[in-house]
Structure formats: structure tokens, C-alpha cells
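[agent] plan:
  1. take the single chain provided in the ticket
  2. run structure prediction with default settings
  3. attach C-alpha cells to the ticket
  4. add a short note for the reviewer (M.T.)
[agent] executing step 1
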Amino acid sequence: MRGRFHLRERRAKQEKYRGMASDRKAYQQTLPKKRMSAGAVFRNEDGDVLLVNPTYKEPWEIPGGAVEANESPLQACIREVKEELGLDIVPQRLLSVIYKPESDTSTEALSFIFYGGLLSTTEIEQIVLPEDELSEYRFVPPEQVRQYLLVEFAVWRLQQSLTVWTTDKTLYLDG
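[agent] step 2 finished; step 3 output follows
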């Protein structure tokens, strides 16, 4: 008899927890949502930073893009690098996480910047840009990125991320 009672009790608890889990998910679906993006910093042997020129907007950027539903920032970065550069590269590590508050022109967002690594001459020669999305790429000395990125937030985000690329640190930036 004791065994049956415990079995019923255990089943009742399992049902209760299942109900709580669905309530938790329903509650979580009511919470605010944030946009997320993921990008990669690549360098060449001279230490220059890879920038890409989108055809659909100004100005230049690092390779990357939006994190899709049910996709991690790392998975998004890998996908975007493949889509934008034609390279199968797994970033070496996370450089920074940036929170950008809501503004007059955009909603709040989280941005994840990964270090993609040093591209060899062979890898650079293998870059294939999607013509409908990117018109060109260029390696730019870090001190000249401001001339290409133009948007002050993008310049700041990249410059801050570059400060830790040779370390084992990860930055959290509140923009």
C-alpha cells in the first residue's frame, strides 16, 4: 500500500510542476523583448580590421547581423559570417556584450561582438560577398575605422571591443 501512495503522490507533484512550467512560460512571454545582434571582428596579418559595405544601408560595419528566434548569439555570428563572407569560421571568443537603450530611431538592443580571428591570405582570397547584401569589403587600420563606420555608437563599440582582443577579458558596455 505504501508504494502505491508514494507513486500517486509523485505523479501529483509531477502534474503540479508541469502546470507551473507552462505558467512560467506564459508569464515569460509577457515580458519585454530585446533585439539582439552578433558580429565578428576579423584581422589580417597587418592587424587591420575587416569591414563590409552593406548595399541596403549606410555605413560600413563589421560582418554580422540579427540574432534570429531560437538562435544563440554565437550561432547567429557563425551563420552571418557564412552568409556574408562565405567562410566557415567559428569565432574564437566573445569580446563584448553591449546594451543599447531605446532611442528616437531604434528599440533597445543587445549586441554580441566576437573575435573571429586572424584571417590568412588564403582565407581572405576565399571571401565571397552576397551581391544583393554587400558591395565590398576592406581591411582598415584600427585608427581609421571612424572614417568608415560614421555612426558614433558603432565606432565606440568596435574601439572598445578592440581593447580586449589580445587579452582573455570580455567587456560589458552600457551604451
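[agent] step 4 note for reviewer: The helical segments are 2-28, 73-85, 121-125, 146-149, 152-162.
[agent] ticket updated
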